[in-house]
């Protein structure tokens, strides 16, 4: 049995406390609990090595090589984990200019990523090159609101995927940002961008209610928040009913940890983002209790706005 | 009877679901102090790529006197870059250029360091394959451009243009020492990303581009090499901010 993190243990203890431990002991066996750890990155921007010594206040930070060591260490200490990426793996160091993404994608495959989505900079060497270099990946790229059917990426990107981790059925879908006006048109070709709000509602409802997923995760490259009304992770969360977690990118937002905001039904949606360049690894530990529908002894209502 | 009971038990266990009961989240800073060690297998895999990259990118092409910072609304790196774009455009098309503009996030690092500059520094500053182009546009379009720059909190602009920002809008726009004339045609230098409507510069899409065939990064590299041949350093000439924000 691997050691659970301190807070998770405290959380369970708190739940027992509320109920009164005696009641548990007399009627039930230990609750059937599963911990699932989400590890996630965004905007790695071809940062293979940590920033060099002359990079000012960023010197020595980040980099895929160091990230990989940290990920390995955490994964060896938890029961179940998912390693996910939220786009803009490419562009930012000469490694990309020289090798067009071949190196970054091979390193991600070695790191054991479970899924990723597409950022605007993935198109920087052109969609043909991207399609070619996707062959270096050993994990799925998921995007629900880009229609690639008239492009070289046809058949190389999934609209969603369901993965089973420790008995938890996890539905994963992906959202990409409007490319027009952001990426030169000749680079993204005939990619069709679809409204991420509508698409996210449709696919998350399917994953939760028809595919009966226990957890629905959105991998987003929309950005955390904007001053304007532009669609962002916070907008997607507020307009949703069936998304549990949104892992994001694009705005290079450094959050200390996941924040919660209310969905349409007033339930909490977790949103997280981990800066850029591997300077941060996002981490969310989730605890599941297997029990009858409507009955969950260790459930703690997740406060909104935390 | 036994079969019935088994079915009931089976049914009841199947009706169990996984409830998301609790979470905690604390993101991890990947710093030098990280105690997780190195992924040596990964480093070994990267080695041939690194050697090829460094063979090309570690060449020293020039020097700076001071660290050149990218800043908003205006900063030393902004001015240095925009002025070089301006000067190269002028010699490429052999015509006067009123000013040059470059989108802020087209510069991908916060600064160029003090001391030696390598080819790698320039690739990290400007990783994109953006070409230098010249456009001839009306004062109306320049006003729209300055409002767009204001909405982004300031972009690199060359000498020849200055303005103030109030509540996200540009005013007091001066071009080569004169107030902007909405009906006059101005000749401006920029990159093809903006000229094609990137970063919502959609107003540029209607105008033909005078191409120079020069990559902006190559222009920067050439300028720094040329300075170096004359034993000169890349520096901000201290002409001061070109974009000012009014106090609220």
What does this structure look like?
- The complex is a heterodimer of chains A (306) and B (248).
- Chain A is of the alpha/beta class and 306 residues long.
- Helix content of chain A is 26%, strand content 22%.
- Chain A has nine helices and twelve strands.
- Chain A has a six-stranded mixed sheet with strand order 5-6-8-9-11-10.
- The longest helix of chain A has 15 residues, at 196-210.
- Chain A is globular, with a radius of gyration of 20 Å.
- Mean pLDDT of chain A is 90; it is low at 1-7 and 15-28.
- In chain B, strand 10 and strand 11 (178-179) form a beta hairpin.
- Chain B has seven helices and 14 strands.
- Chain B has one domain: Alpha-Beta Complex (5'-nucleotidase,  domain 2).
- The interface between A and B is large, with 86 and 57 residues.
- Strand 12 of chain A pairs antiparallel with strand 2 (28-29) of chain B, so a sheet runs across the interface.
Summarize this entry quickly.
The complex is a heterodimer of chains A (306) and B (248). Chain A is an alpha/beta fold and 306 residues long.
Brief descriptors of the model:
heterodimer; A: 306 residues; alpha/beta; Purple Acid Phosphatase, chain A, domain 2; six-stranded mixed beta sheet; four-stranded mixed beta sheet; 22% strand; disordered N terminus; B: 248 residues; alpha+beta; 5'-nucleotidase,  domain 2; 7 helices; 35% helix; 27% strand; globular
């Amino acid at each position: 049995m691997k050691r659970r993190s301190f807070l998770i243990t405290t959380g369970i203890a708190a739940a027992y406390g509320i109920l009164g431990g005696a009641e548990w002991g007399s009627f039930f066996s230990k609750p059937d609990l599963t911990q699932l750890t989400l590890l996630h990155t965004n905007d790695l921007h071809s940062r293979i090595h940590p920033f060099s010594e002359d990079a000012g206040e960023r010197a020595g930070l980040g980099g895929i090589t160091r990230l990989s060591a940290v990920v390995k260490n955490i994964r060896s200490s938890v029961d179940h984990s998912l390693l996910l990426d939220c786009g803009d793996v490419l562009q930012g160091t000469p490694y990309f200019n020289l090798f067009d993404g071949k190196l970054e994608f091979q390193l991600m495959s070695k790191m054991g990523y479970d899924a990723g989505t597409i950022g605007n900079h993935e198109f920087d060497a052109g969609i043909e090159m991207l399609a070619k270099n996707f062959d270096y990946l050993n994990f799925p790229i998921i995007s629900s609101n880009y229609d690639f059917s008239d492009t070289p990426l046809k058949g190389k990107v999934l609209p969603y995927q369901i993965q089973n981790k420790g008995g938890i059925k996890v539905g994963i879908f992906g959202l990409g940002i409007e490319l027009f006006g952001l990426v030169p048109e000749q680079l993204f070709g005939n990619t069709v961008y679809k409204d991420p709000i509508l698409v996210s509602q449709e696919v998350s409802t399917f994953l939760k209610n028809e595919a009966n997923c226990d957890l629905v995760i959105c991998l987003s490259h929309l950005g955390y928040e904007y001053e304007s009304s532009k669609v962002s992770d916070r907008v997607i969360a507020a307009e949703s009913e069936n998304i549990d977690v949104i892992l994001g990118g694009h705005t290079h937002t450094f959050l200390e940890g996941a924040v919660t905001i209310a969905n349409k039904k007033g339930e909490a949606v977790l949103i997280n983002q981990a800066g850029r360049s591997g300077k941060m690894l996002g981490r969310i530990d989730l605890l599941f209790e297997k029990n009858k529908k409507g009955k969950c002894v260790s459930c703690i209502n997740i406060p909104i706005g935390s | 009877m036994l079969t019935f009971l088994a079915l009931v038990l089976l049914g009841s266990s199947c009706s169990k679901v996984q409830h998301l009961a609790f979470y905690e989240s604390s993101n991890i800073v990947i710093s030098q102090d990280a105690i997780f060690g190195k992924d040596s297998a990964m480093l070994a895999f990267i080695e041939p790529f690194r050697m090829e990259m460094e063979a090309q990118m570690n060449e020293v092409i020039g020097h700076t006197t001071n660290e050149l910072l990218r800043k908003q609304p205006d900063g030393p790196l902004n001015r240095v870059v925009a002025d070089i774009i301006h000067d190269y455009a002028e010699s490429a098309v052999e015509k006067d250029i009123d000013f040059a503009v470059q989108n802020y996030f087209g510069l991908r690092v916060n600064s160029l360091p003090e001391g030696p500059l390598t080819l790698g520094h320039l690739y990290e500053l400007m990783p994109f394959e953006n070409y230098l182009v010249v456009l001839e546009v009306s004062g109306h379009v320049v006003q729209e451009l300055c409002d767009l720059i204001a909405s982004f909190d300031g972009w690199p602009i060359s000498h020849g243009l200055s303005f103030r920002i109030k509540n996200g809008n540009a005013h007091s726009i001066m071009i080569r020492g004169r107030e902007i004339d909405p009906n006059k045609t101005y000749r401006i230098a920029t990159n093809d990303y903006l000229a094609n409507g990137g970063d919502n510069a959609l107003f540029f899409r209607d105008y033909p581009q005078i191409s120079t065939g020069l990559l902006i990064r190559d222009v920067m590299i050439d300028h720094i090499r040329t300075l170096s041949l004359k034993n000169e350093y890349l520096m901000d000439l201290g002409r001061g901010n070109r974009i000012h924000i009014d106090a609220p």
